[in-house]
């Protein structure tokens, strides 16, 4: 009897399991048939074993074989990569409402479920949070109101560099701390240096960004997400909690100040924190209630979204300029002509620096720091390039590849700011020119464009007007990229500054 049961069990194991696996495989293949073409992958693992870590490059190479609308299987998940301007236009303009929500990675879901801007689905909460951020922080009038703050922080950076003349400086770190201070100042009047909050916040933010950048089994095999096999969800929640603690202490200080000033803000100013707290006390705007966690989520988005991107762009710019001495000379000649040698650059000089502006545009083209944008998740099935894309597919838009398309960009791989000097108007940041999409397009286009444009120009001018830069002896320029949510330099740029203007103008 026992032997008969064991034989039956063996039969089941020998025939049924392979049959079930085979049927699952056939279903998986059939399901994929209506999707755009793409490289053949392995069952379960998909194309994972064959992809290189530089996803933007790897996707660009594959799209030359499989076309501008291509399927890639990341583990169990079929994803679609769009690599041409016409495919991007079809998604982000012709199907803008369908492409109005981002795909939410498992780690982001664990830490920010519904509380921030980037990963909130399109709808009333997202609209309210975005409206608040633009109106109170990123609009022209809000930015104008904090011009002195940017001036103070940029001057601080210049002083720091003066103190380090002749020694090696890590450019990105300096610029990062400056942009972080600007963001802190704009949001709640803090700075990185004089508040203990600065370092703790930075640590928590770095931790969260690192977790978000990890290849997470939970994203590749969503059925396994509840197990959190690598512990990424657990880690990110720990970092988020430590960010929340920093925020709570800032909040408590502000509440105390408000009580002491009978509801008024710090020094009578209404910064973003103040506005959000007043709104919170009112219970939200007329349609949507606001929760304290959403205030924390949006703060995080603005700081994280504004600092890494800006400082990485400036680092790429200085690297390219150092690599092209002619361009360095043209930038400095323009600065000397417009600003002169007897005063510091001011923000008001920026509109009169067309060559530097062209340099910035060329950096945005050749080194778009968000190379695949923030991946999308179509809210219903749709058609792009004649292929159907099912609802909920993760869709990447390879801006990095679009910006290097040889039929659009002459000498596409060359760093050539001059291309933006004639016909400059053709390439702005509105997201209407689908050959040039550094800030994305459509409903999710970056809301920080005016600040980003202003900061990149002001920082570059303030690095290049007062200083000459050279590489440390025995080092060579390395323009290799390191793929991540933000496309960084593989090795951070280290350069040596030396003064080119009289120091007395900086103490004036
Ligand atoms: C060089 C600087 C910057 C670049 C290249 C950049 C690029 C981008 C890109 C590509 C997106 C995604 C767009 C899409 O999904 O189509 C984005 C979204 C976003 N950016 Fe920026 N950004 C920069 C600076 C800033 C700044 C300074 C802020 C604010 C302080 C900011 C805040 C945001 C936010 C909140 C989102 C999410 C918007 C949403 O989902 O509705 N960014 N950015």
TrEMBL record:
Reported cofactor(s): heme
Alphabetical UniProt keywords: Heme, Iron, Membrane, Metal-binding, Monooxygenase, Oxidoreductase, Transmembrane, Transmembrane helix
Secretion signal, residue range per the UniProt entry: none
Membrane-crossing residue ranges in chain numbering: 12-29
Keyword Transport among UniProt keywords: no
Sites where the protein binds heme: 446
Superkingdom of the source species: Eukaryota
An example Gene Ontology molecular-function term: oxidoreductase activity, acting on paired donors, with incorporation or reduction of molecular oxygen
Family: Belongs to the cytochrome P450 family.
Stated name of the protein: Flavonoid 3'-monooxygenase
Organism: Iris pallida (Sweet iris)
């Amino acid at each position: 009897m026992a032997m008969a049961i064991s034989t039956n069990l063996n039969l089941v194991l020998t025939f049924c399991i392979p049959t079930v696996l085979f049927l699952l495989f056939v279903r998986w293949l059939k399901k994929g048939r209506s999707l755009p073409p793409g490289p053949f992958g392995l069952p379960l693992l998909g194309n994972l074993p064959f992809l290189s870590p530089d996803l933007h490059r790897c996707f660009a190479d594959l799209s030359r074989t499989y076309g501008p609308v291509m399927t890639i299987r990341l583990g169990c998940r079929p994803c679609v990569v769009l690599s041409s301007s016409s495919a991007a236009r079809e998604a982000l303009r012709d199907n803008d409402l369908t492409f109005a929500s981002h795909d939410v990675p498992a780690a982001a879901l664990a830490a920010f479920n519904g509380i921030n801007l980037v990963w909130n689905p399109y709808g009333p909460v997202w609209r309210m949070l975005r409206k608040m951020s633009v109106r109170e922080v990123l609009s022209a009038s809000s930015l104008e109101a904090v011009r002195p703050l940017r001036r103070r922080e940029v001057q601080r950076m210049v002083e720091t560099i003066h103190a380090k003349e002749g020694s090696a400086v890590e450019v990105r770190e300096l610029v990062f701390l400056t942009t972080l201070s600007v963001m802190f100042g704009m949001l709640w009047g803090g700075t990185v240096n004089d508040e203990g909050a600065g370092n703790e916040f930075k640590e928590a933010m770095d931790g969260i960004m690192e977790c978000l950048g990890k290849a997470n089994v939970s994203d590749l095999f969503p059925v396994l997400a509840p197990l959190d096999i690598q512990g990424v969800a657990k880690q990110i929640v720990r970092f988020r909690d430590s960010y929340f603690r920093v925020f709570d202490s800032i909040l408590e200080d502000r509440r105390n100040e408000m009580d002491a000033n009978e509801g008024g803000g710090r020094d009578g100013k209404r910064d973003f924190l103040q506005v959000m707290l007043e709104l919170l006390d009112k219970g939200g705007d007329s349609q949507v209630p606001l929760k304290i966690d959403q205030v924390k989520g949006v703060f995080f988005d603005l700081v994280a979204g504004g600092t890494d991107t800006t400082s990485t762009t400036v680092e790429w710019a200085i690297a390219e300029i150092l690599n092209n001495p002619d361009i360095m000379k043209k930038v400095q000649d323009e600065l000397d002509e417009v600003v002169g040698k007897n005063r510091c650059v001011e923000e008001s000089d920026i509109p009169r620096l067309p060559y530097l502006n062209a340099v910035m545009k060329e950096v945005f083209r050749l080194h778009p720091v968000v190379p695949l944008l923030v991946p999308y998740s179509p809210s219903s099935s749709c058609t792009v390039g004649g292929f159907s894309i099912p609802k909920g597919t993760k869709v990447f838009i390879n801006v990095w590849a679009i910006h290097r398309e040889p039929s659009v960009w002459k000498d596409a791989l060359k760093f050539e700011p001059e291309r933006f000097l004639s016909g400059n108007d053709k390439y702005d940041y509105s997201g209407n020119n689908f050959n040039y999409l550094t800030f994305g397009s459509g409903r999710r286009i970056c809301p920080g464009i005016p600040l980003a444009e202003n900061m990149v120009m002001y920082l570059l001018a303030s690095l290049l007007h007062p200083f000459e830069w050279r590489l440390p002896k025995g080092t060579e320029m390395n323009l290799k990229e390191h793929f991540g949510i933000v496309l960084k330099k593989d090795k951070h740029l280290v350069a040596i500054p030396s003064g080119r203007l009289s120091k007395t103008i900086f103490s004036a």
